[in-house]
Amino acid sequence: MAAQQGHDQAQLKLGYCCRDGIGLPKDKIQAYVWFNISANNGGVLNGKGRAGELVEEIRETLTSKQLETARAEVEHLEHLISTREKKNYTAIIRQLSQDGWTVTMKKDDDGSHNVIATKNGNTSISHAPNWRVAFISVWQQCEKWSD
């Protein structure tokens, strides 16, 4: 599922589905969880956005016990998502390196995730809200130059 792979828009949409009961039973705890994860995904760079507003709206309707349960689920899922993302971008780094690219990555003070790949005078740079977006962008550009 895209939401579990770190895709913030899929996380936001899953939050709406949980909140509104679209395709699955209404569940305000799961809505809180997915809106929260979406809001945290690149939040420093682009703000919490609509997902952050929705987290606050739902938080006000949860009991302290429900909120505790939801926060634990957020922590658990964010750890799983982070582990999957690292595995995915490690595979991209490995593939680009095998193709002769030198890859560097850096997280800036503003929260942006930067990936730079260089090879034979070509440089691909991505400045993105999260590693998933940064690596996919650089990988796609490098693949075009491979043709």
Protein described:
This protein has 147 residues and is α+β, with helices and mostly antiparallel strands. It has 2 domains: 2-84, no CATH class; 87-146, Double Stranded RNA Binding Domain, CATH 3.30.160. The chain contains 6 helices and 3 strands. Strands 1-2-3 form a 3-stranded antiparallel beta sheet, with helices on one face. Strand 1 and strand 2 form a beta hairpin. The longest helix has 35 residues, at 64-98. The chain is elongated and about 60 Å long. The model has no long low-confidence stretch (mean pLDDT 89).
H and E order: HHHHHEEEH
Number of domains: 2
What is the helix tally?
6
Unreliable residue stretches: none
User: How many β strands by DSSP?
Assistant: 3
Strand order within the widest beta sheet: 1-2-3
- The best one-word shape is elongated
Fraction of residues in H or I helices: 55-70%
Helix-and-strand structural type: alpha+beta
Overall radius of gyration: 18 Å
Q: Average pLDDT across residues? A: 89
Biggest sheet, open or closed, and with what strands and sense? 3 strands, antiparallel
Write the SSE topology.
Elements: H1 8-20, H2 28-40, H3 43-46, H4 49-59, H5 64-98, E1 102-107, E2 113-119, E3 122-128, H6 131-146
Antiparallel strand pairs: 1-2, 2-3
Helix pairs in contact: 1-2, 2-4, 2-5, 5-6
